[in-house]
Here is the input.
Amino acid sequence: ATPTALLVGTGRGAQLGIVIRGPEVLESTRRIQVVLLDKTGTLTSGRMRVTEVHPAPGEDAAQVLRIAGAAEDGSEHPIGRAIARAARDARADATLPPATEFAGDAGLGVRAVVEGHRVVVGRDSLFGELPPVLAGALAGERELGRTAVVVGWAGQPRGLISVADTVRPTAAAAVADLRRLGLRPILLTGDSTAVARAVATEVGIAAGEVISEVLPEEKVAAVRQLQQDGHTVAMVGDGVNDAAALAQADLGIAMGGGTDAAIEASDLTLVHGDPRLMADAIRLSRATLRTIR
Ligand code: ADP
Ligand code: MG
Here is the structure.
């Protein structure tokens, strides 16, 4: 590979909105066979909004949202940002009570102390059995393709908040583009199987190519397993929860507008967050390296 051709390819990438860490990255891009696609923030816009608050029996919906919003105020996850924003918007003075001891568990949820309560907002698996009203609401929300998280304090689940996200307008075309290039797209997400399948259907990925309900370290394991099976793997993601998998992949691709951790762990960044740029990057690397030989 002549350095000049690689530099020209890198420059062409920048024009397209693909930031390439170094010229050598184009070589690994060309060899990719499997593309793991994160859901939230990658295939979807990640611009989530709260659609419903379901209180547990004896709880007040406004209070559930207010406490959850305060606990999520320090979160940079799209779910956390949506909950904090909705909680602020619901208040005449747009303020939230202060939270202390904030801690985020990537791929699980957040914890914080609000008004003396130990608050947890996150996956239902963080809680024991849910009261029937909440379990029913959770199933209903998932049927609608919505992500729902549980809010609890003092060891008790107090409510459920559902958030809606929209599939990016170019996601289905991006998946079709990858297939046309001979690549195998797989959806990889920490979200529930029901929600993951709804998004997969919308973008044209079969249920058998969906890996769901995985923790960040299980995303890494999924990448490693495919590599052990002899595949060259690209991973596309945007979140803190994706960073380790992005680093493990043969090619890590970050969505522009994603978290710094994802961008730092990646070889390529798609500046405008348009998933169609994934196929453009692969086409570019193939074209660049063809001119070299
Ligand atoms: P994805 O792989 O689709 O990007 P994540 O791994 O970021 O999803 O999150 C997986 C699940 O963890 C979410 O569906 C949600 O249930 C929970 N979760 C993650 N972060 C938060 C948060 N800040 N607040 C509440 N729940 C969260
Ligand atoms: Mg994500």
